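Page 47, continued from p. 46.
Same chain as before, 459 aa.
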Amino acid sequence: MTLAIVEPAQIPEEETEVLVPPPAVVTTPCDPWPRPYYLEDGLRKVQPYHFTYNTYCKQRWRGRELLDIFATEFRDRPHGYYKDAIESGKVTVNGQKVPSVKEIVKNGDVISHTLHRHEPPVTAQPIGIVHEDNDMIVINKPAGVPVHPAGRYNYNSIVEIMRAQRGHGWNPLPCNRLDRLTSGVMFIGKHPKAAEKLTDQIMARTVKKEYVARVIGEFPEGDITCDQPVMQISPKLGLNRARASGKDARTIFKRLAYYPPKAKTDGTIPKIEDHRSDKQRTRDSKMAWKVKEGYSIVRCLPLTGRTHQLRVHLQFLGHPISNDPIYSNQRVFGPALAAGDALSDDDEDIISKLSKMGKTEVAEAMEYHDELMEEYNKKKAEKLTGKRCEICETPLYSDPGLHELGIYLHARRYACQDGKWDYETSLPEWALPPPGMDGPTFTTKETDPLALVNGAYPS
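Result:
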């Protein structure tokens, strides 16, 4: 028998499977719990942490270059940072690193930005509870705390602070909005149905609202109405102005109290030695508001709800909120502080000056020119320190001064037009009579601007 040697069959080698790495994360990579809060020097602070922002392409971004969007829409970092972030993959589109900073953004794109996040401090003052039931919490919001996470703020927001207090799974639902610098009455729904019901009431203008403000100078007595339209000038900087071509806006004001300078309360003007330098005298001679002595407490009834409406209207009337870092800022608006100005074409110059505030210059409101604490407050004001984070090279800001944590504007009262509910707070401390002076410590019908419309609130 003949034996044949048969070569073993050749078994083809298996090809090594090449696994494509998953795309970069498109969701928040971490959600620290408990929140990394700590309290220091009267401030609530947050330890820096890594975070990913995700956002769908907005309509105004369509067809634009990625770097152009970041450089023009966001103020938190310099142009060079965003360029490096795109090139290094910290900024992605649909979870993928883009080949160029000139990548064109399209409708439906998801833009992600992962960074080492540094939040600004806010006041350590607790959130006050005005009323609570099974559907709603009525709070007294502290000044200086934003309602929602936005911009540089995330965990230092009303929503996240309340979540940290009540549990990770609890979802607070704000029904009305207040500016970050404003304090006062806010409604937090406990469930969607309750939040939707109250939000609908507010949108239908069946809710009465009253604010109280502290303004420069002697506000006129009587019922003062301002109906100047309000226009948004820069969404990036949050700047609005009185403009004939803006949206209709109307506010009724009524003075609650006027407090003259202490030196004039006894009818005499003591002799005061002038130690100012020639430069300081020249500076003061150009400040039109210097002749407006003392301050007034004013009750405010907004009949419309434009952004910054009360702040813009009080500026237009020549009595801006004393410590308003935007609308009482002479470095931005000049000596007259835009009183009575609805026609000037200096918006670009205003934007340029305002953009420097908090970076190379201190946001300096009129309030602090007349106080002995002026220089101290300037040193304590938030601005870039020249230092950088050791982890991410982010330019670091100093802590804000206590005078920067809010403005003298408070949402004092919200009430249902048909009388089913009515919530209010007491007057804030800055609206009470100063030491040694008499004045109202609560509101009365005689100073109520809400009684001007046939004795009731307007619909």
